[in-house]
Amino acid sequence: MTRESLVVSTLVELADNLVDNFDVIDVLTLLCDRCVQAVDMDAAGVMLESPGGDLQYIASSSDSMRVLELFQIQTDEGPCIDSVRDGKAIVNRELRDSSDRWPRFSPKAMELGFQSVHCLPMRLRGRSIGALNLFRADVGYLDDDDVVVVQALADVATIAILQHRSAIDASTLNGQLSQALNSRIIIEQAKGIIAESLKCDMDAAFARLRAHARNNNLGLTDVARSVVAGTLRSQALDAPRPPRTK
Amino acid sequence: MPNERLVDIFALMARYERQGVKEGSLALAAAALTNATGAGIALSPDETLLTNFGTSNDTATKLLELEMTLREGPYCDACAGEAAEEVDLLDTSSSKWMLYTPGAIDLGARAVFSFPVRIGSIRLGALGLYCEKPSELTYDQSSDAFLMASVIARAILAMQSGSSGEVLSEELEREATFDFTIHQAAGMLSVQARNDVGEALELMRTHAYATSTPISELAARIIARETGFDSKSGTWYDEGDIAI
Asked: Which residue in B119, B160, B191 is closest to A196 by CB distance?
């Protein structure tokens, strides 16, 4: 199997999973296995940040990897920890030169038979939600293409996790997307109506819309819909007030 | 073959991300992948409204807007589920679109193609490509475009999935070049013309077509109160001849 087809079959397998309920651990374990094959690694593991900010061990391709992942969490030290915190990739790091950076982790990893380490952040909305760790038993080298391949796998895994967390299927999502787009359109139409009726600019029109929604404990879209339908006149909208101080 | 191309798509997207491309990276990737002059992505929350999700260049934006005005053309067909192609718009023997074709030629397109953006039976919108010369898509180019359309569909849903139902996710807003000024202008116009916003939008479409003005430009002028509709005389007015 060529490297491309490994990556692709992973992507397709993961993508297929996106529309059904799936076991996130299975998917990430699959990702780890495929990384090991795709860029010739000896072990791979995934850690994710929990909502509280702690890192959690999620999946790995081997038991020694699992031990190392847990060790990083316990000692709060190691490439995965750094990568999640900085959101930056660590590539081609030789462990024998890393005892300054990771005084406890480096000897432990070498003891388990590894020589080099790479770590790629899993990013979502500009912030890292976890990291993919890759280990090699010799001093190997990942070139730019390798990094792209692995980062693509990490990105797809991120999408998979995201999908899992929100636990919704494609048709629900599409419904929500349509709804979100439509309500945005209605709000913009209402802004136009208010701006013309009250001879103000769009920002002032929006402030008016929002003030009315807040004061009357209504949704912004609902107020906008009434304005567009003509059942709520622009003049009847509450004017925005300066924020109250306690 | 599609396998390698999928990797290419991810590599292209990764490259645009590294280059710091903020908007339209999916459209840029689609154009680069298929060797088209330009590409655009339209979302269609319902059959009657096209929303610009992102384009790779100015002409691609204008071509998409042309369809917003006319409600016919390749994006409209693909949003309804049918891929469309015109390998040479000047060849009138095969002309599918009465109004779109001459408009698209004026904007500099000679060949146009479109592909539904969907997952299974769920339709989200369309991917459109144009070439400035008469062009046929090879089998490979066409498979690439279908593949890209499926990546776009997944990417859009993945981006929206972080948001709660009623609002567009921040990630989508960042990636997309949504332009909602048309709807603001329709709102203003509905007050001037004393009709509902749907009718006001139609009025805008007709006027944009009659005056060969891109609908976004007309919207900008309505919002700036440079042009508007007088309901008494039933005509449009223009405050001076504003050079564009």
From this structure: B191
d(CA A243, CA B10): 47
- Alpha-carbon distances, residue A45 vs A30, A49, A125, B67, B118 (angstroms): 10, 14, 22, 48, 33
CATH number of the domain at B2-175, out of 2.102.10.10, 3.40.50.720, 3.30.450.40, 3.40.50.2000?
3.30.450.40
All domains of chain A in start order, with CATH: 3-166 (3.30.450.40), 170-236 (1.10.10.10)
Contact B170/A at CB under 8 A: yes
**Which of B122, B187, B28 lies closest to A177, judged by CA?**
B122
Q: How far is CA A17 from the centre of its chain?
A: 17
Q: Which two tokens stand for residue B205?
A: 């479409």
Q: What is the pLDDT of residues B136-158, one digit of tens each?
A: 999 888 888 988 888 788 778 77
Tokens, residue A12: 């397709």
Test A155 with B46 for CB contact under 8 angstroms. no
Give the pLDDT confidence of A182-233 residue by residue, as tens digits: 888 999 999 999 999 999 999 999 999 999 998 999 888 999 999 999 999 9
Distance from C-alpha of A39 to C-alpha of A43, rounded to nearest angstrom: 11
Question: Domain segments of chain B: what residues?
Answer: 2-175, 181-238
First-to-last C-alpha distance (Å) of chain A: 67
Using CB atoms, pick whichever of B158, B165, B170 lies closest to residue A179: B165
